[in-house]
Each structure stands twice: as C-alpha cells, then as structure tokens.
Design brief:
12 helices, two-stranded antiparallel ribbon, 403 residues, globular, alpha+beta
C-alpha cells in the first residue's frame, strides 16, 4: 500500500474544503436541514455539476470520473468535517454500486448518467430497521431480514404485468426526496425463498398517498443532518434490478456494506477532526483563574489522547478505503467501529470542554455529538461491528484464523 496521496486526490480534498468553508457553516447546515429536501439544493448542484461528486466512483462510460473508493472516502471526509447534508451517501455510496453490480445494461445506461449529473438521486430501502443487517455490518445478511415469507418486511409478487411490492421500509436515508428507490424484498414463498432488489421509479407522494399505493414520510431523527424516511408500499409496481433472479443479492449487499463502511469511517473521521480542531481553538481562549484552560496539564492530556484516537481512526479509514478498492473483504466494519468510537468520544469531550455554552442548542458541538449517536444507531453499535468482524475472522471459534 502506498500511503501517499496523489496530486489529484489532494486537489479533491482542497477544493471541497474551500467550497464548504464558504457555503456550509453551522448556520447554513441548520437552514438546509429544515428545507423540504433536507439539504441545500444549490450546493448539491454545485457538488454534482461542477465537482462531479455523485459520479466520482462511476466509470467514465456512464458519465463518471472513474475514480475509486479512496477518492470517494476523501470527499466524504470533507463533507463530514462540516456535517454537510446531502444525498451523496444514499446515492453514490449505497445505490450506485448496487446498480453497477446487479443492473442490466439498459438500466445502467438509463439511470447512471442521470445520477452522475446530479439530476437523479437514489435511496436504498430495506424492510423495517434492518439497514445494518442488510449490509452485513453486524451479522450475516443471508437470513430472513427481508420478510422470510411471513407477514412483515417487504414482499414481492410476480404478475403478468411485472412485479408488485407490498410492505414497509424504515431508516431509508434521504428516502423522502429520492427520485429512485432500490427496494430489497422477499419473494418465492417458503419453497424458493430469496431476497431480490427492485427499482421503484417516478415520484412518490410525500406525507400522503402516492400513485400505486406508495407513500413516504420524512421522519424526525436524532441527527437532523442525516435525513431518514419511512416508505410504505401497497401493491406498488416495480422493476427487477437486473435480468437474473438467481443473482447473489446478499453477497453484493455485503460487498457494498464493506465499502460503504470505509466511506462512512472517513466521514466520521472528518467530523471528529473538525470538532477536535474547534475545541483546541476554544480552550486557548476560555479563561479560568486568570489563564486559558488550554494551558492546564489535565486539559492538554485530554486533548492529546483525543488527537491520538482521531489519527488512529484516520489511518484505519484510509487503509479500509484502499483495501476495499483492492478487493480485500471485511475491513470496512472495523474501520467504521474505530471511527465512530473516536467521533463519539471526541464530540462528548468537546461538549464538556466548551463548558456551559457547549450544552446549548445554539452551539455546533451538539450537532457533532448527535451525528456520532445517530450513526451508531444506524450502522452500529460499535461493539456489534467488532463482534461480527471477530466472528468472520474466527478469532474465538477455536479454529484457524481466517486470512
């Protein structure tokens, strides 16, 4: 592994940081999350059309830049620093790899150029609150999380006119605004039980009844900067993703989960680095007993420990991004666990070291703390991420450790 970033990679980082410093401060973030879409549409247009962010890891044949997971991780690290609300995670990190891996050539040619340009956003909808299970981050995703032939989950039924879906999906990231849904659904009953992915195209009504019985409602989430929705499907027309009903959907989802975990780890590192940076600035200014609190040895030690933890998490995230791009498996979850832990500890220490002002709604420290807590609820918790990685490597199974 070459740990040195190329000039192009450094340019991605520099350009994004300069743009977000100008257009995505704490007040801009608060304004964006309260908009109908949950993000600044003008900023998203700039990120998509001028910087090519949605197509960063897309092949050039589909209008993308042709970069790897590493470049996408560097971009999300900068977005994490400012907690930029955007559909990038739902679209480029979760949905695009599924379209590339499972979609037919016609589906890819139709949808991916529109996604690359920023015209179309997408979201992955899995039944109930099973996102982390579906992505194989905290357990084996070959179980019955999609419904298993019983009531609940999302069921797919084949008819003469195609496929129809019935069920409900929660925790759908940016699902209230996405123009395309990738829905994981159970089909085949007990005899040929399997999970397949389906495309639901066209607009769905928000907070009401949509065409074909589909509705979506934006949820009130702990982390406002990470919009979530509930999708209800009642006999909704859908299109099978790809041409092969025997495709290994669970394996593809687990692979996407591993690369998504690496990208999320980089994003969490960016957030932890920024909140630590802001805390260091503050302790140099806040005075007690006639001197800055940053001059006290106890405070220095606390900040030094945080710095070491953030840098260790950054190293793990960078390695995971490189390793998943190189085809190595089961590395993203461990990096995500380390990054989420670093963000949680750093943001909580930031609240403490900011004193009374750090506990107010007006201060930005609580935004980072809520991002840490929200991400653990969505993609963790940390101990389950590590437990699954240990089980996959057979560390405690009494057998030979898998390499």
């Amino acid at each position: 592994m070459d740990a040195t970033f190329t000039a192009e990679q450094e340019e991605i980082r520099r350009t994004l940081r300069e743009l977000l410093l100008k257009r995505c401060g704490p007040e801009e973030v608060r304004t964006a999350v309260r908009s109908e879409g949950g993000y600044d549409s003008a900023l998203w247009e700039t990120l998509a059309q001028q910087l090519g962010l949605p197509g960063l890891a897309l092949p050039e044949a589909y209008g993308g830049v042709g970069c790897s997971v590493t470049e996408l991780a560097l971009a999300t690290e900068e977005l994490g620093r400012s907690l930029t609300p955007s559909p990038l995670l739902a679209t480029a990190v979760l949905s695009v790899p599924l379209l590339l891996a499972l979609g037919s050539e016609d589906q890819r040619a139709t949808l991916l150029p529109r996604i690359s340009s920023g015209e179309l956003t997408a979201a992955l909808a899995v039944p109930g609150a099973s996102l982390t299970t579906a992505l194989g981050l905290t357990g084996d995703n070959r179980g019955d999380w999609a419904g298993g032939g019983r009531a609940g989950g999302v069921q797919a039924r084949q008819t003469d006119g195609g496929w129809r879906l019935y069920g409900q999906a929660d925790q759908v990231l940016d699902g209230h605004s996405a123009g395309l849904l990738l829905v994981a659904a159970h089909t085949g009953g007990f005899a040929r039980s399997r999970t397949l992915l389906f495309l639901v195209r066209g607009p769905l009504e928000r907070d009401g009844s949509g065409s074909g019985g589909a509705t979506r409602v934006r949820l009130t989430s702990l982390d406002e900067t990470r919009s979530q929705a509930r999708i209800q499907l009642r006999d909704v027309e859908a299109e099978l993703l790809g041409d092969d009903e025997s495709a290994d959907v669970a394996g593809v989802l687990a692979g996407v989960g591993d690369s998504a975990a690496a990208v999320l780890a980089a994003e969490a590192v960016g957030a932890a680095d920024r909140v630590l940076e802001r805390t260091v600035e503050y302790v140099k200014q806040r005075e007690q007993f006639g001197r800055a609190i940053g001059s006290f040895q106890a405070v220095k030690h606390r900040l030094a420990d945080l710095y070491v933890q953030v840098q260790a998490a950054r190293s793990a995230a960078y390695y995971a991004a490189w390793a998943t791009g190189a085809g190595e498996e089961r590395v993203g979850g461990l990096a995500l666990a380390q990054a989420l832990e670093a963000l949680r500890i750093t943001s909580s220490e930031a609240v403490q070291l900011h004193g009374g002002i750090g506990f107010t709604w007006e201060h930005e420290a609580h935004l980072y703390f809520k991002r840490a807590a929200g991400d653990e609820l969505l993609f963790g918790p940390v101990h389950r991420l590590r437990e699954h990685a240990a089980d996959a490597a057979r560390l405690f199974g009494g057998g030979e450790v898998a390499v």
